[in-house]
Amino acid sequence: MSDHQACAAAGLPPPELVTVRGEEVTIAGVECYVAGSGSLCVVVGYDVFGFKVKNTRHNVDELARIIPDSTVVMPARYRRPANRRLPRAK
Predict the structure, then answer these.
(1) Count of beta carbons in the 10 Å neighbourhood of residue 40
(2) pTM higher than 0.70, yes or no?
(3) Dihedral of alpha carbons 48, 52, 32, 18, sign
(4) First-to-final CA distance of the chain
């Protein structure tokens, strides 16, 4: 299934038609995508398609648009520098 077919099946616009309105910022050393500027903070996670995907960011934008007085933050929680190793289990 192509990206276009997957988007159409889910009722989403194809990626090339999506315009993102938020911005990438660093919060406490963590790269985040942020949309909105309200007093209510909503933190969301991204799916298997990743942090940089336009439709994922579009979802964050839409949440910020439909939730009154909100700021929606999507941290890049599962990303890490390639040279940083995870600690070994004991």
Answers:
(1) 11
(2) yes
(3) negative
(4) 42
Give every CB contact of residue 59 below 8 A, 6+ residues apart in sequence.
44
What single-letter DSSP state applies at residue 39?
A: S
Q: Which residue has the tokens 């994922």?
A: 56
How many angstroms from the chain centroid is the CA of residue 76? 8
pLDDT, tens digit, 9 for 90 and up, residues 8-61 = 677 777 777 778 899 999 988 889 999 999 999 999 998 887 888 888 899 999
What are residue 24's DSSP bridge partners? 33
Q: How far is CA 62 from the centre of its chain?
A: 11
* Residue closest to 75 by CA, chosen among 44, 39, 52: 44
What does the alpha-carbon distance between residue 32 and residue 77 come to, in Å, rounded to a whole number? 8
